[in-house]
Amino acid sequence: MKESIFHSVALLEEVCIGCTACLQACPTEAIRLREGKARIMENRCIDCGVCIRTCPVSAKIARTNEMHELRRFSYNIAVVPPELYSQFGDDVTPEMILRAILKLGFDEVFEVAMVSEEITLATKKYLERKDIKRPVLSFNCPAVVRLITVRFPDLVDHLLPLKSPMGVAGKRLRESRPAELGLSSEKVGIFYITPCPARMTRIRQPMTESEVYYNGAISIADIYGDILIKLKEVPSESELDLHKSGGSGIGWGAIGGESKALLMEDCMYVDGMVNVLKIFEEIEKGELSKLNYLECMACTGGCVGGPLMVDNVFIARNKIKKLRQRYEDQSPIDPEQVIKLYREGRYHHQKKLELNLIDPLDSSPVQAIKKMKERKHILDTLPGIDCGACGAPNCRALAEDVVQGRAKVTDCIFVLFEQANEMAQRVADWTARLPSSMKTQHKRRAEPEKLTLKEVGK
What would the mean pLDDT of 338-363 be, rounded to a whole number? Predict the structure, then answer.
């Protein structure tokens, strides 16, 4: 039995005004308009959060955890991604941010950027192999990975077979901290501070892991204000020395940081779903085979442009650049230890990535072919302008919905008007053929009854 799909993107139906903003923006055509409200097709949604960003009335929300849930645990760990550092002014250091998070009720903070440097070194080792499909695609962005499982199954073998920094951090903390603290695993809470809903989905339903290591994810947008308040209580200098990550790991917070950290030729990075879709289509055609590595991020600017971020994406990206340069010579990792762990398979996926392909037209090959022909016939009758007024993102999607019984051809207003005009013409033709006596009677019935002034006065 197929596991039910968890989605961290949800729709507030009572808020939705039935516009077509999300409909047109969704990269997997997962949204339809029905009865004046948006509907999310669960088998197509990849939780990228594009609809959250584009909705003009905030009818799409991300389902994440709240701070009060920390009370369920005896010891709480905040796993902090580098993009969080980009949300504050130049005078606010990573050390200050980490200390402020501790004041919110967490007992420990763990920097994802430290693990990012490990994954960079492990990736370089993997790219030395000659038997791999190129370009190798980054596994870091969960929305991009889910996009591949839904729309580009032929690219699965191109994905880097190493865990994301987020995955390595969660596994390491879950396996080590309970024993070190003398607590049961159930009493240790591990929460990811997330810039996007897709990472919440990766936490609830890990794609390549057999276990769930995190207890939840807290939105950066939700925790941002609390951090600002606590920063007033944090001195500019501290003896705690919480910040240990180097510049290359912090660089992962923005697009290009992962590729630049590799220090290799023939590495490229692409951000924004529209651009990612185009580049994946090129790879499917056999292009870019000489490229070593491709870093793709669903959000413009990378994680700093996530739908749950606060600051302007361009300002945040510039802040990451400054931090990368500032801590360029700082690195907490031991290269020899990383290579040892890589050879032991400690960074590799636990299980094979499963496809989540959009449902086929029919389980029967014969019926599927029949429906394909029917879909093409319907598509030929549609105007092809992809206006979205029918409630589907484009004419091809409407044709498929009609074939699958989810819509009618007359949902297209152009088809409806055309049929109405044809009907009106038929009525006119029938009227012209009527005998003269019936035409007179028909005319009399069609004329409105005239009232006299006397009757109007009554």
Answer: 88
CB-CB contact of 407 with 398 (8 Å): yes
Host H or E run for residue 144: helix 142-151
Picking from 235, 247, 195, the residue whose alpha carbon sits closest to that of residue 218 is 195
Q: Which amino acid is at 155?
A: L
DSSP, collapsed to helix, strand or coil, labels residue 61 as strand
Query: pLDDT by residue (tens digit) across 370-405?
Result: 999 999 999 999 999 999 999 999 999 999 999 999
The whole-angstrom separation of Cα 261 and Cα 247 is 9
Q: Give residue limits of the domains in the chain.
A: 9-62, 67-343, 365-458
- Whether 357 has a pLDDT exceeding 90, the answer reads no
pLDDT surpassing 50 at residue 453: no
Amino acid at 251: G
Collapsing DSSP states into helix, strand and coil, what is residue 138? coil
Q: What is the pLDDT of residue 59?
A: 95
pLDDT, average across residues 270-288 = 95
Residue 206 has, within 13 A of its CA and on its CB side, a CA count of: 20
Q: How many residues does the chain have?
A: 458
Contacts of 300 (CB under 8 A, 6+ apart): 271, 272, 313
Residue 449 half-sphere exposure toward CB, CA atoms < 13 A: 3
CATH of domain 9-62: 3.30.70.20
**Mean pLDDT computed over 343-372:** 88
φ and ψ of 287, to 5 deg:
-80, 165
As assigned by CATH, the class of the 365-458 domain is mainly alpha
Return the CATH fold of 67-343: Rossmann fold (3.40.50)
pLDDT value for 160: 97
Which of 27, 22, 13 minimizes the C-alpha distance to 275? 27
Predicted pLDDT of residue 447: 55
- The distance from CA 307 to its chain's CA centroid, rounded to whole angstroms, is 9
| Confidence (pLDDT) at 437 | 66
Q: What is the DSSP-derived secondary structure letter of residue 86?
A: G
Q: What angle do CA 354, 254, 160 make, to 5 degrees?
A: 30
